[in-house]
Structure formats: C-alpha cells, structure tokens
Automatic annotation (TrEMBL):
It holds the Pfam family FAD_binding_4. It comes from Geobacter hydrogenophilus. SUPFAM superfamilies: FAD-binding/transporter-associated domain-like, FAD-linked oxidases, C-terminal domain. Residues 52-239 form the FAD-binding PCMH-type domain. This is 4-cresol dehydrogenase. Its cofactor is FAD. GO terms for molecular function: D-lactate dehydrogenase (cytochrome) activity; D-lactate dehydrogenase (NAD+) activity; FAD binding. The keyword Protease does not apply. It comes from the Bacteria. GO terms for biological process: lactate catabolic process. InterPro entries: Cytok_DH_C_sf (IPR016170), FAD-bd_oxidored_4_C (IPR004113), FAD-bd_PCMH (IPR016166), FAD-bd_PCMH-like_sf (IPR036318), FAD-bd_PCMH_sub1 (IPR016167), FAD-bd_PCMH_sub2 (IPR016169), FAD-linked_Oxase-like_C (IPR016164), Oxid_FAD_bind_N (IPR006094). PANTHER family: ARYL-ALCOHOL OXIDASE VANILLYL-ALCOHOL OXIDASE (AFU_ORTHOLOGUE AFUA_3G09500)-RELATED, D-LACTATE DEHYDROGENASE. Coiled coil: none annotated. Keywords: FAD, Flavoprotein, Oxidoreductase.
Length: 531
C-alpha cells in the first residue's frame, strides 16, 4: 500500500519519494507535507465530483522566488505536476483542489509581502499570499486614503489570484486584470520575467505603465498554466472627499422588469454618471444574504420556507421577498466625486428611474437603509470594503454544493432578459433555483449564476452535473461564452471556444512547459489529453 495519499499520473512511488526528498532538502520538512491530515483542506470541493478525482499528492510552501525556481527544476526532473494556488478561496470555481488527481499543490500563501504602496499615484506591488484584507489593514495602519477594488467575498481572497483568474469587483475599477500593471513570473524552465517596463534596469514605471515594448504578455498568465505569478502591480483608488460617496439601492417587484431596468441604467453607465461596476441581484441571491441564526442556533434559510423537492414555486419566492422586503430584482450602484458632483448626478439617476418606473421602483439611500445588513454589505463592496457576507449563499441552501456558472452577455436589455429566461428554465427543469446577479462591466454583463445543491445526496450530485453541462451547452449554442468556470468543467468550457483557440493554447504550452508540470488541466490546457 502506498504511503502517499495519491500519486501523479505516470510517476512511481519510488520516483515520487525521491522528488519529495529533494523538495524537503530545499524547503525543509515543515514546508513539504504529504500526510492525509495536512492535505485534507485541499480536498474540500463544492463541485459535483468525488474528492478522489482531485486528491493532491503533496502540498509545498515556497517563500521566495528562488524557492520556486528550485521547485520547478525538481518538478521537471521527476515530472511531478504543480497545481498553483494563492489562497485557494474561489469556492464556486473549485477551491484549492487540483484539476486532476496526484498533483502537488504549490501553495503561495506563505509569500505575503506587500512590497510597495505608492500613495501619490495610487498603486501597489504585492506577492500572491497577500489578501485584500491585508492591503486594507496596511492602508489603515499607514493612514493612506486608498481603496482597492475587491471581489465578493473578499476578506480571504488574493489580488494576485483573483486577477489571474480575471475576477471582477464593484467600484469604478471593476475589471481586475484591466487595473493590474506589471507582473513578475517564474516560467516552467525557471526563468524569471518581468512584464511591461519591468525588464528595464532600475525601471521607475513598472506599476504605472502597462505596455512596455513589443508583444503584450501579461494576458498569457491569466487563466493559464504557462507560468507562476510571483508579484503583481495593482492600481488603487483614491478615496473621495467627505460627502462624495453615495451608495443606493433600487428594488423592483417583478422578474419581467429586468430588460427595462437594464435599458434605464446602461445610458447612465456608458456616460459615467454611474461610474462603478454596479450589480443587479435577483431575489434568490439577495435572500441568502439575510441568513441568520437565532439564540438556539437555528438558521432562517431556504428550508424555513419550503421543504419540498425541486425548485422554489413562485408563491414561495414571493413569501421570501415579502419576509425580507426584497425585490425580484435589486439594483445596487454608487456615485463618487465631490459632493456637488454627486448631488447633480443623483438628480439624473433618480430622475431617470422615476420617469421610467414611477411608483413601481423603491429607491433607498443610506438614510432609508438604516441598519440593513445587506445594504451595508453592498455599501462596503462598492467602496472596496472587505467582507465575507456572501458566504450566506452556502448556508441558505445547505448541503455543501455550489458551482458558479458565469456566462457573459452584451449589456443589452434583450440579451440579459434572454439569458435570465434560459437559465431559469434549465435550472428549474433539473430541480434547482435561479440564484444570480448581473455585474455590469463596461459594455458587458458578467452573469453570475450560483447552482446550489446538496453534495450529500448522490441524486442531487448527478442532477447538478447534468444541469451545469446543459447550461454550458445551451448558452454556448446561443453565442454566450463563459468567462470563468470550475475545475470539473474546464475541459468542456475550453471546447466551446473552438479548435483554433485550443490549438494555440496547446502550442504555447508545448513551447513554455513541454513537461506539462504547471497546473495540468487549468482552463482545459493539458498535454496529457489529446485535442
């Protein structure tokens, strides 16, 4: 019987033992773990597959770039694949578990240096283990009037990890890769490159000028397994003056109003009157935020309202909306600038919605919201605050199962309405609820759908897998690409982008990582699997 929990594909126990011995020689015993108890946390998945398929063989913890260079040298020598994570908290996309059994988790959480924060120009340079919360604490400690755009939930997430997976946030910056500037990357052969102007000796503009000279490379290292990002520049926001930040919420009573909501706010978004990556949240998502425990430890969640099988009936959805005083759609946005700018722009925004919806829209500002916890959660998000409120989604449904399906829609009323209807029909057909939010980008919507299910029930596991697969297939046939997916569906999502794209990804992989040691299977790129 093997003394290791799992072995990499094609690697014998003797060969793997030699590799582990060499990893420990450079890192120390305490930073190379192979025992089942230490690896248990890397097997906690929420996707509808067994943990057996995603068992790691080991976990290793570098502290420096030189450590990583030595690690990739050993990985090439013994063909031991490395699954790289920063904090591994992307729960709905696969957590920290490797895409395929037997990979070594290269956990970068021990690389936690905030290397530099420039308050004058508003940028920072950080390592992968730095979290958004760490940055915010740094700003407070040094009394810096700076914000960082955050995803949700953000407290445990890493700017490097979230940017590398092309995540989004809710401030005027929104698109995280767009506001990154300059990477340091270790390649599979151990070479270290600095993108942008970072290759210039004594560069003073590495985090202020994105492009450098020649082909732009940064994108190659996002959603990829072509290199290991060890440093990342992130642009920060300067805090507005007192009275220059105004979050607001608009509630709408009917599901069918989505197209008109989009039609009303998109001109304001394109004109930058509403400058942030605002969000339209449906009742299912909103209700989960109100998950609470009473004094006896009993939670108010989905089962409080419905104990039947299948998706929630419309009548029950209405009961939930009435209970928590939430809309069928809930539009959160914010205004920023001087108090005078905010006051003027609020006239445009409130006037547009009142003219379109009259008394069918309920408009709520901080004054009306008072101590509402979900308004406070969104208020913090839109000013770069750190929170874990969104984990209420998992408590709301229970059962430990979650997959985020993330198609992109052009920000047109008809496109959003069509996606909503297709998703609702497919989810309800398989017995699941439509739980979603539309995050408004520049001219696109990131349509985030949380497929919540019970992992303890084999039938639900099976139905959840089938449901997600149908969502992926039907959305692709309708011309909607997914911008991000979980480890169970990376191969299938990659196929929806066509053979030419897969061929160029494979060509790059062969050129940069011929031994296939960096995160095989990430984004469907794996030299062990023929096209």
């Amino acid at each position: 019987m093997s003394r290791f929990i799992a072995l990499p594909k094609g690697v014998s126990e003797q060969t793997f033992a030699k590799a582990i011995q060499e990893y420990r020689a450079i890192l120390g015993e305490d930073r190379v773990l192979t025992d089942p108890a230490s690896l248990q946390s890397y097997m906690k998945i929420m996707i509808p597959e067994t943990e057996e398929l995603h068992k790691p063989s080991a976990a290793i913890y570098p502290r420096t770039v030189k450590d990583i260079q030595a690690i990739v040298a050993i990985a090439n020598k013994y063909k031991t694949p490395l699954w790289t994570v920063s904090t591994g908290k992307n729960m709905g996309y696969g957590s920290a578990a490797p895409a395929t059994r037997g990979q070594i988790v290269l956990d970068l959480k021990t690389m936690k240096k905030i290397i530099h924060v420039d308050e004058e120009l508003g940028y920072c340079l950080v390592e992968p283990g730095v979290t958004y919360y760490d940055l915010q604490q740094y700003f407070r400690k040094h009394k810096m009037n700076l914000w960082v755009d955050v995803p949700a939930p953000s407290a445990m997430a890493s700017p490097v990890g979230n940017t590398a997976d092309r995540g989004v946030g809710y401030t005027p910056y929104g698109e995280h890769f767009l506001v990154s500037c300059g990477m340091e990357v270790v390649l599979a052969n151990g070479d270290v490159i600095r993108t942008g102007t970072g290759g210039v000796q004594n560069s003073t503009s590495w985090q202020s000028s994105k492009w450098g000279y020649g082909p732009y490379l940064d994108g190659l290292f996002t959603q990829s397994n072509l290199g290991i990002i060890t440093k990342l520049g992130v642009w920060l926001l300067k805090g507005p003056p007192p009275g220059g930040y105004m979050p607001f919420l608009m509630k709408f009573p009917k599901v069918e109003m989505l197209a008109d909501i989009v039609k009303t706010f998109m001109p304001l978004r394109l004109a930058q009157i509403i400058p942030n990556a605002c969000v339209v949240v449906n009742a299912g998502w909103e209700a989960a935020g109100y998950f609470t425990y009473d004094k006896n430890g009993k939670g108010t969640n989905r089962s409080t309202f419905y104990k039947g099988k299948g998706s929630l009936p419309p009548k029950v959805f209405q009961e939930i909306m009435d209970k928590f005083k939430i809309g069928a759609w809930n539009f959160y946005a914010a205004l920023y600038g001087s108090p005078e700018q905010v006051a003027l722009n609020w006239k445009y925004v409130s006037g547009a919605f009142k003219a379109k919806f009259g008394n069918q829209v309920q408009i709520i500002t901080e004054k009306e919201a008072k101590d509402d916890p979900i308004f406070e959660y969104r208020r913090q998000l839109m000013m770069g605050g750190s929170t874990l409120q969104e984990f209420g989604l998992y408590n709301w449904r229970g059962g430990g199962g979650s997959m985020w399906f993330a198609p992109v829609a052009a920000a047109r009323p008809s496109e959003c309405d069509k996606q909503m209807r297709i998703a609702t029909d497919i989810l309800n057909k398989h017995g699941f609820d439509y739980v979603s939010e539309f995050i408004v980008g520049w001219r696109e919507m990131h349509h985030i759908i949380d497929l919540l299910y019970d992992r303890t029930q084999p039938d639900e596991m099976h139905r959840a897998y089938q449901c997600f697969e149908e969502l992926l297939n039907v959305f692709s046939k309708n011309g909607y690409g997914t911008y991000r997916t979980n480890t169970a569906f990376m191969e299938k999502a990659a196929k929806t982008y066509g053979p030419e794209m897969r061929k160029i990804h494979r060509t790059l992989k062969i050129a940069l990582d011929p031994n296939n040691i960096l995160s095989p299977g990430k984004s469907g790129i794996n030299l062990d699997i023929p096209l």
